[in-house]
Structures are given as C-alpha cells and as structure tokens.
Amino acid sequence: MEGEPTLRLRIFDLNCWAIRYLSKRRQERVRLIGDTLRQESFDLVLLQEVWSEQDYSDLKVKLSRCYPFSHYFRSGVIGSGLCVFSKFPILDTLLYQYSLNGYPYMLQHGDWFCGKSVGVTGMGVTAPLLSLSLQLHAEYCRDKDAYLPHRLVQAWELAQFIRHTSKAADVVLLGGDLNMHPEDVGIRLLRGWTGLRDAFAEATHFEGCKNGCTLVPGNCFTDKSELLPFPLGIRIDYILYKAISSYTVKCEELKTTTGPAPGMNIPFSDHEAVMATLHIQRQGQPACATLGTADLALADVVTEARTEVGVGLRAAQRQRYSSGRMAVLPLLLLLLQAVAALATLAGLGTEQPFPKLSFCLLAFLALGVLVLATGLHLFHTMEVKMLHGTEDQMWMALRALQERP
Amino acid sequence: MEGEPTLRLRIFDLNCWAIRYLSKRRQERVRLIGDTLRQESFDLVLLQEVWSEQDYSDLKVKLSRCYPFSHYFRSGVIGSGLCVFSKFPILDTLLYQYSLNGYPYMLQHGDWFCGKSVGVTGMGVTAPLLSLSLQLHAEYCRDKDAYLPHRLVQAWELAQFIRHTSKAADVVLLGGDLNMHPEDVGIRLLRGWTGLRDAFAEATHFEGCKNGCTLVPGNCFTDKSELLPFPLGIRIDYILYKAISSYTVKCEELKTTTGPAPGMNIPFSDHEAVMATLHIQRQGQPACATLGTADLALADVVTEARTEVGVGLRAAQRQRYSSGRMAVLPLLLLLLQAVAALATLAGLGTEQPFPKLSFCLLAFLALGVLVLATGLHLFHTMEVKMLHGTEDQMWMALRALQERP
C-alpha cells in the first residue's frame, strides 16, 4: 500500500494570552492572530487562553470561510480558554477537567478559577483523527514549585485519558502549553506512558527560536526576570503526535514564531506559536506501538513521578491537619462565648457591665475563622483523596509494567 | 468461528448504602455482602456507596482469595463510593468526575460532596473488557426535579465518555445506580447515544422483584413514603452492556434480590442487588453497531434532553443573576458604613454617641452576605458554563445525526 496518498496536515498551536483587562494589547493581538490564520490557511488551529468568549466569536466570524468548523470549550468560572478551528469536520467533542488544579485561595495564580481541562475533538480527516488542545497548571517558581504534584496529577490524568480515548483514532495530535520543560518528569511521564512523539525532536526541518523555545526573552511581552536563569528562553508549548493503527506520521517541518509577527511591531502573544507540518500515510501493517520498547525506563519515570506525588500527598495531609487544628480554636472560643452569654442571661456576673461590642466582634471573628478553616479542610481533604488516588493508579501501572514478560 | 468457546461472565451490582453513622446496620450488612460474595463467587462485582474506606479494606481482606483484583476510586470530599472486585486482572483504571453534581449548599442532599464519578476499569478477560461502575445524581422529588438538568449533563457526559473510551474494548459493561427510571429521557439518551443494551430487557430468563425493580416497598430500609406513587417499586439500578468488535454478548439470566438476604433477616442494602449472567462469544464478522439504526428516534431523544438542559440553563442564569443582585445590597451598605465611619473620624456628628455595636454587627452581617453571594455567583457561573457547553455538544450531535446519509 506504499502508493496510498499522503495527507499533509498543517497545525498551528498558540497560547494566546488573551485575558480581558489584564493582557496587554489584547484586541490588537487577537485581530492579528485572526488575520494571520486567515492568510496562512492551516488545517488545524489549537488555541489556548482565549478567555473571552467574545474574542472567540470574533475569530469565528473572521475565520468562518477558511476554517468552517470550530469549537469553544466551556468550563470553570472563567472558562477553559481552549478553542479549536479546523478545515475538517469536527464530529465530536469532549471536555475532561483535571481533578486537581491549584488552590482557590491563591487568587493571584488564578489557575483554580479557569477549570483547566483538555478539550478533545474527534475529526474526520482521511483517518479518524483525535486532536487535543490543553493547558496544564502554570509553574510560578521553578525552585520551590508547590504546584508540581498538581501538575503531575494533571500529566498523569492526561496520559491515562489519552490511553483510554485514543485507541479508536488512527492519529492523535496534542497541542498546548504544558508548562513543563522538555526534560521535566511530567513530560517524560506523558510521553512515555502514551507513546506520543515530540514534533520538535522528530522534525526533519526546524526553523524558529533556538532549541524550539516558546517563551523567549526577545518577546516584548514576556517577564524578563522569570527568564533570567534561561537566557535562550524555555520550551513549554508542544505539538505531540502518534499514529495508532496502520498509519505513520512524520513531522516534516516545525516552526516557531520569533517575536514580532511578520510586518508588525508586536508578537501574537507572550508565547511563541508552534507550527508543524505532518505527513500522514497509511501503510500495510500496523505501526509498532512505541510502548513496551522501553519499559524499564518508563518504570523509572513513573516511580519518579510517584515519589513527587507522594511528597505532594504528605504536604496536603499536613495542610488538612493544620486547617483542622485551625478550626479548633474558634470553636472553643465560640463555646466559651456561648457559656458566658448564657451565664449573663442567667443573671450571673451582673456586678460589671457586659462588654457587648467586643463580645460580638470576637464572635464574628471566630465564626469567620471557623468557616475559613472548614472550607480549607474540605478542600485539602479532596486534594488528599485525588493525590492518593493518583499514587494508587501509578502503583498499579508500575506493577503492570513489572509483570510484563 | 462458531466453535470458539463461550465465556460465561457473572456480574454482581449493588448500591450498598454504607454511609458511616447514617446508614442503618451498616457493619452487619457489609459483613453480609462480603460473606455472600465469597460464597457465590461472581466474576465481577461492582459496588456503589461504599463511602468508608475501612469498609472497602475489610471487604478486600475478606474477598482476597475469590477476587484477587480490586480497586477503590477516590474523589470528592467524602469519596466516590465506587469499588470493583474482580476475578480477572484489572489492567488500568480511570476516574471521570462529572462536571456538575448538585449544589454545595444543599447539605441535606450531600451529592456535591461525594464527587460523583464513573470509575473505569480495563480488564483482560478473553476479550479486553471495559467495566464501568457509577452513580448519578439522586432524584429527590420526581414532580419538581430540580436536579434533572444536572443528571442529564451527567448522562450525556457519561455517554460521551463511553463513546470515547470504549472503542478499544471488545465488550463494555456498565453497572450502577443511575437514579433514573427506564423510560426517563436520561436513560434513553445514554442507551441511544452509546448503543448499550439493558440486561433486564434482553435477559432470556429473569428472576426477582417484579419489573426488575431495585427500590421496592418490601425492603425494610426503603423510605415507604417516597415509593407511594409506585406500589411495585422502581427500577433505577442497571446492568448495561455492549459488544463492540467481533464479539457478541447475550444476557442469559438476570436476577435481583428480593428483600432479606437468603437465611438472614435483613437485606444487603436499601437497594436490591442486580446479578447478570452474560455469554460472551467471538464471532466471525464484527457485530453491527446498534448506533445508526434508529437515528431519527435518537435525534428526538437528544432534542428532548437538550430542551431540559436549556431549561436548567435558564434557571442557572436566573440564579447567577439573583446571587449577583444579592451582592449589591451588602456592598452598598458597606460603602455607606465606610462613609459614616470616615465622617465620624473626621469629627462630624459628634453631638450624638456613635452606635459602635450595631455598626459592627451590621458590617459583619453585610460582609457575610457579600461572601455568600459571591460564592453563589461563582458557583452558578460555573453551572451556566457547563450547561451551556452540554447544550452546544448536544447541538453538534444533532447536526451530525441529521447530516448522516
């Protein structure tokens, strides 16, 4: 079947950084992205951080002729920010929300409110194609990365989800801002456990920022201080792919933008866009699965990830404990106040005036702390459950890997 | 390939109603369930509402010889309550949490805290087998069922999830408490959209409560007043199945328990257990998919479900609006108080004493209402997003159904 025609698929992936009122020159950039997409005419466009539905609608109107099919994934308080534009019919969509996604009280890190998720679109190209657009929890501090366990849970859930959903497709494509460096344990876990291949590593031809970086100091919107340890920038946006049944996928070309858009004075976003050209061809026999070839290395990665999740689990258990302890004090205080109030009502201690104001202030303060502590306790209980569940699943995976002949 | 051996699979499904401190005679019943499972020796046991991990651990110890493989799914604050015991190796597990699951402030209907989800276990029997254990949102009042849209979103997400995950398996089994009557739109949606077949309707031989009911007035633990309109009881626990590739599945026998366990004076739970014997056989050619045979009827069901989700969406939008409005009053009050406090500090109105106590009380009250209203607003915003997303997905499904040749 060597003579079967090759499908050439051009993919565009970008974290648009389009947060209403917060992102700089948002509307201008969204217009620019729309114009470029219309001119360039890709086959599949995966966008992240399109937080405003209005921006999506504007893009949809602008791109309706070149990309007749599109979908916007709704989730969380603000939304998932994910959308897909496609030349090929979108047959089906599915949204999978990660079970852990930061802390609601870390307002400045807004991840919790986004309902971070992976949006899956099933498309009918030549072969059934499954495309995933996603974003994982951001890394705010590489040295003291409190969110690593959450990101690992997300990477694991994502990998499990891909394993379970992808089997019916012939080709799986994943594009998004994974918020992890190429050598990070989460990326190794995701790639190892799913068999996805990195378009940057596989590309025959590459053009763009050095090392394929997508967050570079040269971009006028990036936070330069964050990139100080990485003078070349970092690579956290990826296009990953795999062929499942009797297809082969080759990455012919990978490009990234390099700062300002052509002929313009501003870049598309604070991230660089990633563009891949893939060749998809049917072949006679099923392509051998990439899984199983390096079980030992994979077991090491899973073990490493499980250790990190274990660290997160113990931290969450400590936080659950301390939020529980935090509730004890206001509870005791309220109890004491109730006794005092009852005593006063019973006519005891009438020789001195009852301090109504400070009594009420104290009661409200205690109530506030109690509510807060209870909320925190519930939240950390959920966190413990999810981390524990992931640890279990990883253990099961390890056992399965070790038992393989 | 008519001569291929038949696999006889015996499945046990039960909503155990094992809530610590709340369920009557819980420990006794869990012991009884364990003993029966050990004696009867099923192939696959799907349990719901095992809320206490200790109960699961006890069952695990007791059943370790007959059912060497088991898994407990953790989620939410309390847990998912789902667990699986199996004679066959559990190769893989995945937990999918529904995006909507009741309201956190409806404490008496604790659904929100359970993190209701579907637990998927991939098992290697003769054929790759995917078993799902699950529970959907409870129905508290059939006439004024405020949770119908949430249950429909869950049914839809479940159906979409099954469609996406099941393709790699040869046989899909689903057992659980769907909290829906057989003719309800959610069940019709789930069955129509996935092609799952109802073991009760397909069984060659049936034995048990009339009409296959699983919540019957004869059970000493059921709430008789709830079942007044249904003198025979209701059927809300199901075993559903389908064969995907070149396999056929037939339901040889379906049984339900009928009140007290044999030789005992109490039943296993307030629900009756459902037990099915399935025959799984490989056949030469792929079994025809059940989907596509009745597209028109299916389109009707999806339309009906979409209408209900739309009703829920409008209700959620109203609630979002009123919680937003509710926040305005305390905000204005706080503003007014701030002005009054500043005026007093500036020395205005010193001719009369400043009412410190009522001032503080009012401020705390306003603050409390503000926090509550904001929380409600955020929650209903999420609800609107998810309902809207589901409505979109259903619309896409309808379009795909109508465009089919």
TrEMBL record, chains A, B:
Domain Endonuclease/exonuclease/phosphatase: 15-271
Keyword Hydrolase among record annotations: yes
GO terms of biological process kind: sphingolipid metabolic process
Keyword match Lyase: no
Transmembrane region(s): 327-348, 354-379
Major subcellular location class: membrane
GO molecular function: metal ion binding; sphingomyelin phosphodiesterase activity
Membrane topology of this protein: Multi-pass membrane protein
EC number: 3.1.4.12
Subcellular localization, as worded in the UniProt entry: Membrane
Pathway assigned to this chain's UniProt record: Lipid metabolism; sphingolipid metabolism; Sphingolipid metabolism
GO cellular component, one term: membrane
Keywords (A to Z) from UniProt: Hydrolase, Lipid metabolism, Magnesium, Membrane, Metal-binding, Sphingolipid metabolism, Transmembrane, Transmembrane helix
Gene3D superfamilies assigned to the protein according to its UniProt record, in alphabetical order: Endonuclease/exonuclease/phosphatase (3.60.10.10)
Family: Belongs to the neutral sphingomyelinase family.
Name of the protein described by the UniProt record: sphingomyelin phosphodiesterase
